[in-house]
Design goal:
The chain is an alpha+beta fold and 694 residues long. It has 2 domains: 319 residues, Glycoside hydrolase, family 65, N-terminal domain (Beta-galactosidase, Chain A, domain 5); 355 residues, Alpha/alpha barrel (Glycosyltransferase). It has 20 helices and 29 strands. The longest helix is centred in the middle third of the chain and has 23 residues. The protein is globular. It starts with a helix and ends with a helix. One 2-acetamido-2-deoxy-beta-D-glucopyranose binds next to loops.
Length: 694
């Protein structure tokens, strides 16, 4: 390297060091930007392995599946322009000094050449008990500016989105237009050819996107080629108020939709501007439920708003109320997480809320809502029972009715005779088409799903005022599934569990205890609905099985003793996460002895690796949801072993996408060949906060 190169590199290095940002509480593998629903799911890759380490300027935001969702931001200060968001370039980046996140917000702070401070806040609201707000598939971006040096500065602010947001196919033709409604200026853009309830590359082939800001006198706007619109702002600080009406493909001179606000002279008082991005779809899902053919379910927002523009302007003009509600949710998660297990727990929980809700689609009507879940990144199945199951703690913690709305499509499908098997179904098809499996050909996880459905039905019923009628309504099918457990739970046949990537195995200790707790739950369900003979029978079977299970599934001679991965394999071990259900349902140590809890609690730290306790002895990988289920019922010391390792992993992992729940506990990286991301199972991180005592 020549002297000049060395100098250049040293200068570059020093400028990088100067521009270094604080990350609080940690630098997550990906930062949620607009994460509200399966089709509004945009992140900033932040890991070292492919991401740029958590800097908003200089890298494109991406949809969870990695397609770019073009989102560019510039600020002009006294005539000099800087990038604060996006990968387009055109000028240098503003210096990011700080990043923080909470349950609903990602906040970036920039110093623009030491002259002004720019705060950029991405708020994706989560309002679990306010379905009108939750039903809207929109997200906020607020940019706020003030002087840093005591002088006033002339400031113009720019932000655009590209047509990439609305299509999984970059060759697809897009149409757009500009308008105003109730104080809101908006660019709308949509596929020219639409097909409802179908996707291309995980993005919908129907619906309309809206990118909006305040319709103020300081606003100019423009649609057109990325280079044209962005360069207009870089050169002039204003846009031309013109539409490019040459509707064309997403990747044909990349159409973008720009807004520029001239903030004038900005001094010590912060001046802010708001933007929103989101999607309207009249219909959302088709389900094989009632009747003999598919039922189309409208998006839930249609129950509350007459048309797209009313939804767009309501959301936009609701910012101050939405902010207040978001702060209340952020504070609730923060205070409860800190009180339950400290700051490292909050690092985990506060990163998990948007990701979980970002996989949910709210449909139906205000009097009969149904929530559909997309199993993001692992097949995109719809309504996967063993994905709802790990996500359940967040629903129970925030609003148990959400669990009811999630279970409803599964009951509708199976109670209307659309599934031939005696065990509970695994999923309802591929999102957004819940056409079920009339031939019974779903992924076979019979023991897993029978246990899950009965446990979830009781968990919900225990938290609602009409438990008896709810359980009576579903008693027949719950009893059918309990029958399967009587036959199959104690000596599980060779089969997969929810951890299907780990392979099939007979006599899985953790699967057996799920089925046995399911039988104990069925005894409770029978009791609550006045089926006393059933209650006695299921109760006796459960008690008998749990006694036998201790003989089969525990290596009592080991030092320290532990449960095994499978019967008759004494040196094997694994996370006994299904024991959590025993505590969740309040059966406690009357049913599974305290000694089992203590044994596992003492054992886990002895097999912990750098970033966690392996899922089982077959591999070094582990799962965050299941570790936190184990942590929730462990001693305080063992709980900290899990939580500290996971929080540390979030900060150090080289993975660079929305939180994976599966990683190698030794290296912190993805396991070979399996890349999970953005999955809603991270709702399971709330296990500790969903227990009845907390
Ligand atoms: C940015 O946020 C910080 C708090 O994190 C606040 O003190 C500051 O006033 C904000 N600046 C602007 C320009 O809004
Ligand atoms: C499962 O465990 C039971 C009880 O120990 C045993 O009888 C049976 O042979 C085992 N099945 C398999 C496939 O190993
Ligand atoms: C599992 O992790 C341990 C500890 O780092 C390491 O020694 C071992 O090689 C790893 N095993 C596999 C299969 O990667």
């Amino acid at each position: 390297m020549g002297l000049r190169d060395a100098l250049a590199r040293a200068l570059l290095y020093s400028s990088l060091v100067l521009a270094q940002s604080d990350f609080s509480p940690v630098r997550p593998p990906a930062i949620p930007l607009a994460v509200k629903a399966p089709y509004l799911n945009t992140w900033l890759d932040a890991g070292s392995d492919g991401g740029n380490g958590g800097y908003l300027a200089g890298e494109w935001p991406t949809f969870w599946q990695q397609q770019v969702t073009g989102w560019q931001g510039y600020i002009r200060v006294d005539g000099s322009a800087y990038v604060w968001m996006g990968g387009y370039g055109g000028t240098g980046n503003a210096d990011q000094t700080e990043f923080t996140y909470s349950s609903t917000r990602s906040n970036f702070v920039f110093s623009v050449d030491g002259r002004v401070e720019l705060n950029v806040t991405f708020l994706s609201p989560v309002t679990p008990s306010d379905l009108r707000r939750q039903s809207l598939t929109f997200s906020y971006l607020e940019a706020s500016v003030r002087s840093l040096d005591g002088d006033t500065h002339s400031v113009q602010l720019y932000a655009d989105v590209s047509a990439e947001w609305c299509s999984g196919n970059p060759e697809a033709i897009v149409e757009w237009s500009y308008g105003t409604h109730e104080g809101v200026s908006y660019h709308q853009f949509a596929l020219q050819d639409q097909t409802e309830i179908t996707e291309t590359n995980e993005l919908p082939n129907w619906g309309t996107f809206y990118w909006s800001t305040s319709d103020l006198d300081d606003l100019t706007w423009q649609s057109g080629a990325d280079s044209v619109v962005r360069q207009a702002f870089l050169d002039q600080g204003v846009l031309g108020d013109i539409s490019d009406t040459n509707y064309r493909a997403v990747n044909d001179d990349w159409p973008v939709f720009g807004f520029a606000h001239d903030l004038g002279d900005v001094g010590d008082d912060a001046v802010s501007r708001l933007f929103t991005i989101g999607l309207t779809q009249d219909n959302a899902i088709q389900l094989l439920g009632e009747g003999s053919s598919l039922t189309t379910y409208p998006s839930l927002w249609k129950s509350y708003f007459d048309n797209d523009l009313d939804a767009v302007s309501f959301f936009f003009n609701d910012y101050s109320e939405a902010s207040q509600l978001a702060t209340e949710l952020d504070d609730k998660v923060a205070s409860d997480s800190l009180a339950a297990a400290g700051a490292n727990y909050l690092t985990i929980t506060s990163l998990s809320v948007r990701q979980t809700f970002g996989a949910l689609q709210f449909t139906g009507t205000d009097s009969d809502p149904l929530v559909f879940l997309k199993e993001i990144s692992s097949n995109s199945d719809i309504q996967t029972v063993d994905v709802i199951f790990p996500a359940m703690p967040l629903m129970l913690y925030l609003n148990p009715e959400l669990l009811n709305y999630l279970l409803k499509p599964l009951f509708l499908n199976q109670e209307n005779g659309h599934y031939p098997n005696t065990n509970a179904i695994h999923d309802l098809g591929t999102f957004p088409l819940a056409k079920g499996y009339p031939d019974g050909s779903d992924e076979p996880q019979p023991l897993e799903e029978c246990g899950n459905m009965i446990i979830m039905a009781l968990a919900y019923a225990q938290r609602t005022s009409d438990a008896e009628s709810y359980l009576n309504q579903h008693y027949t099918i719950l009893k059918q599934w309990a029958g399967y457990l009587v036959d199959e739970a104690l000596i599980p046949a060779d089969q997969i569990s929810t951890d299907d990537f780990a392979g099939s195995l007979a006599n899985q200790t953790n699967l057996a205890i799920k089925g046995i707790i399911g039988l104990r739950a069925m005894a409770e369900i029978s009791q609550l609905t006045g089926h006393t003979d059933d209650a006695t029978s299921y109760g006796n079977t459960a008690t008998d099985y749990i006694t036998q299970w201790q003989g089969y599934g525990i290596n009592a001679a080991a030092s320290p003793p532990h449960t095994t991965l499978s019967y008759n394999d004494p040196s094997s071990h694994g996370l006994l996460y299904n024991l959590y259900a025993n505590s969740l349902l309040g059966f406690g140590t009357d049913f599974v002895p305290e000694s089992v809890y203590d044994m596992q609690s003492n054992f886990y730290p002895t097999v912990a690796l750098e970033y966690g306790v392996p899922l089982d002895t077959r591999h070094n990988y582990t799962k965050t949801d299941w570790m936190l289920w184990c942590a929730a019922i462990a001693s305080a010391d063992t709980r900290a072993v899990f939580i500290d390792r996971i929080a540390n992993w979030i900060n150090e992992t080289p993975t660079n996408r929305a939180l994976t729940d599966l990683y190698d506990a030794a290296t912190g990286n993805y396991p070979d060949g399996i890349l999970f991301t953005a999955r809603p199972v991270v709702g399971g991180h709330f296990a500790l906060l969903a227990l009845p005592s907390s």
